Amino acid sequence: MANLTLYGLKNCDTCKKAMNALDKDGHDVVLVDIRADTDLEEKVPQWLAAVGSDKLVNKRSTTWRALSDTEKSEVEQGKAADLLISNPTLIKRPVIETGADVYVGWTADVQAVF
User: Which sequence positions are flagged as catalytic?
Assistant: First the structure.
């Protein structure tokens, strides 16, 4: 099985579900705290290029609801990187890197890949 890096939060229920399922399926998974241990200035542009802001920005989060209309419109205009770097909890979790691919969230589509 491939080595996987899961970017998320230790207390995030979705991240826990993903970690447990991937471990159970025999994947070697490393959890990296998206707030404390991730170089977001490096990772966010890579993730945006791989999956786009529609998938990466969590528009159901309390962080999103607290943003001004101006900040929200920046995301719509393709300027999400700075906002995500300064607000890591705005990143939809988990972000799973396989080395070749990037997956966001723990939806049925993502689960089917693993």
Answer: 12
